[in-house]
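Target chain:
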Amino acid sequence: MNRIFGSSASKKPKPNLQDAIASKKRFYENQIKQLTQQTFNMESTAMTTNNLKNTMATVDAMQTANKEMRKQYKKIDIDQIENMQYDMEDLIEQANEIQETLGRSYAVPDEIDEADLEAELDALALEEEDEGTSYLADLNKVPDFIDEAPVEVGEQPARQEAIKTTA
């Protein structure tokens, strides 16, 4: 009916300000997402490039070290090292023989049994207990024949007053 009389009714509502703002917001959010993804991709590419540079530097260093090690190993003779080890072993063996010779006791025969020595030591300990105290037991005791205690150098002797006793 509207056609007959002039204008048709629009089925779309008229855009208002809120719809325009929401549309712009979605547009900007999509742009931010795209820029964030592009930034991530660029950073990933830069990191990969740095890793490749580091890898190449590591490989170069390994090659240089390999060349240097080969040069150094050419200077080393394994037979010479083995001979030096054998010589050192002989010298150590000689040193041990010298120490053994110097450590030899002249008064003790070689065929002494450890058990015999222990038994003799135990017998001496029992004998000492039976005899009582030794004259060496009281080394720090003042002998009986000394009337006064010894005076250390730099000390003043203690004065005792004479006591007169009458009998």
